[in-house]
Amino acid sequence: MNREYIVNLINNYTELMDENRYTEWLDLFCPDGWYSIVPDSTQVKHVYVIKESTSQLVNRVQSYKDDTHRRTLHFVTNVKINQISGEDSVKAAAHVQVFVDGELNVVGEYRFTIDPVSKLFKEVQLIVHNMPIRSYINLPY
Asked: How many other C-beta atoms lie within 10 A of the C-beta of residue 3?
């Protein structure tokens, strides 16, 4: 797994969300994967806004597809990759801004853990810097 593959995986991750292709988005996760959204540690510690397994995300994705038609646009920059030889995963991080219906909604950082065998996400964490998160958040960023 090289840098180009990882950057393309991250770009695919956000593109699928922006295009409302959530079933395909779920396919980027390992079956035992995790997804979480947390505020940054300068605001609140040890609090998850969302922490769900891949199987739980299936329900979230279905409810999102049924209940909302909001448009998102993700801007991802500063992708950093840390692959340690002999480790059982690859770590990557990126800065993100998410616009929802044309308004800036999230400023934060993604942290990705990628399984080197399946080349899928073991964990995706979105650390949000512009808390408070609005109460209506109900989609996988």
From this structure: 11
